[in-house]
UniProtKB/TrEMBL annotation:
Pfam families the record matches: Acetyltransf_CG (PF14542)
PANTHER family assigned: BSR4717 PROTEIN (PTHR31435:SF10), PROTEIN NATD1 (PTHR31435)
Protein name: N-acetyltransferase domain-containing protein
Domain N-acetyltransferase residues, every copy: 13-98
Domain of life of the native organism: Bacteria
SUPFAM superfamilies: Acyl-CoA N-acyltransferases (Nat) (SSF55729)
């Protein structure tokens, strides 16, 4: 776990109506927009509301989402540059990336 301890207990919500994974901190959200098929989850864009800038919330939502994908047994398509960079920095997550992903060999 690399996330700050204050984020560990915050639940990850899969908001299917908004098509995003999200965590809420004091009424503010950090979230990742996703797309999903039977076998894959594509992470498209990571964002934290301005109030959460620099808090580590974006990294926390990424880590929680990667854990969710790992447990789901699906393969990850990390289109989001932030997620891609996170995996590059923490290569233990490469195991859940779909080998067919375009940038796989760059991770």
């Amino acid at each position: 776990m690399v996330m700050k301890t204050e984020f560990e207990s915050i639940p990850l919500v899969k908001n299917e109506s908004k098509k995003r994974f999200e965590i809420e901190i004091d009424g503010h959200f950090a979230f990742i927009n996703y797309g999903e098929t039977e076998n894959q989850i594509a992470l498209v864009h990571t964002e934290a509301e301005p109030e959460l800038a620099g808090t580590g919330a974006a990294g926390a939502v990424v880590e929680k989402t990667l854990q969710y994908i790992k447990e789901s047994g699906k393969k990850l398509l990390p289109f989001c540059p932030y997620v891609f960079a996170f995996i590059k920095k923490h290569p233990e997550w490469k195991a859940i990336v779909d080998e067919k992903f375009g940038g796989y060999d760059k991770l």
